[in-house]
Amino acid sequence: MAVVAQQDGLEAPPNVPEHRTTTKEKGRFCMAHCICGWRGPARRARSQARTDAERHVAD
């Protein structure tokens, strides 16, 4: 799971949601989800779903 870490003394503005991602499996597919409502595409490779989540958090 990718989590955005806060730096010492710096906090995200209150109107910007924190991004916490997880991956969920459905049948043969794995998808990344974020608490902000974002969902990645269905992937057969778990590693690719995790990469999608990492890219989402970085954006």
UniProtKB/TrEMBL annotation:
Region (Disordered): 1-24
Superkingdom field: Bacteria
Protein name: Mobile element transfer
Organism of this sequence: Streptomyces swartbergensis
